[in-house]
Amino acid sequence: MAEKHLCGVDEAGRGPLCGPVVAAAVILDPARPIEGLADSKKLSARTRERLAALIRERALAWGIAEATPEEIDRLNILRASLLAMQRAVETLRIAPDEVLIDGNRCPELSFPVRAIIGGDALEPAISAASILAKTARDAHMRELDRLHPQLGLDRHKGYPTAEHLAAIQRHGIPDFYRKSFAPVRRLLAQAPLWADADTA
After folding, report:
1. Where are the extended beta strands (E) located within the chain?
2. Are residues 64 and 102 in the same domain?
3. Which of 5, 39, 80, 162 is the most exposed place for a label (fewest CB within 10 A)?
């Protein structure tokens, strides 16, 4: 009997103020197990990067996709996250028999789909997806940090830390920010204040 192709799906980047929300879909190969898979939030950055390389090498299929800040603003973060998940599954070169989603909401898919709360700690394929999504998004934030070093994106990855809020208050808000998120929306409403201060 053929092995059932289970696809794990997870996303990274729902909470940050900027950048895309990134989703990954992974079908693991039972013949090539990967030791140490776990919820990406419980792993060190170095471990995540090591495991991400193994997942890309050993998985039967994997895909990464995103929803842009503009889509997040237009749809809301939940619907944009589901859209990124849908796109990630659609990139797979192998059709899954079942798709397992981390959380309690499922994207619209043409395959059987099931949501699992805490799935990133329970299902290895979802753990693998969480690792791919997190490492892909972190790489994107490092690239943005090279372009906008004054914002400290490499340190806080876009999350609303005190350092981050102070940086965008001082330097302004680039176009890759999520304008519908409350801290960004509030700063944009008083934009002339920081615009004047930054050019003074």
Report:
1. 6-12, 21-27, 61-67, 98-102, 113-116
2. yes
3. 162
pLDDT tens for 159-198 read 999 999 999 999 999 999 999 999 999 999 986 544 444 4
26 in Cβ contact with 129 (< 8 Å):
yes
Residue type (1 letter), 120: D
CA distances from 162 to 41, 68, 72, 152, 173 (A): 21, 24, 23, 11, 15
Q: What is each CA distance from 100 to 43, 57, 116, 119, 128, in whole angstroms?
A: 21, 21, 7, 8, 12
88 and 122 share a domain? yes
Range of the domain at 99: 6-145
Identity at 53, one-letter amino acid code = A
Q: Is residue 123 in some structural domain?
A: yes
> What pLDDT digit, counting tens, does each position of 121-165 carry?
999 999 999 999 999 999 999 999 999 999 999 999 999 999 999
Strands (E), 13-141: 21-27, 61-67, 98-102, 113-116
Contact 29, 88 (CB under 8 A): no
> What does the radius of gyration of the chain's CA atoms come to, in whole angstroms?
18
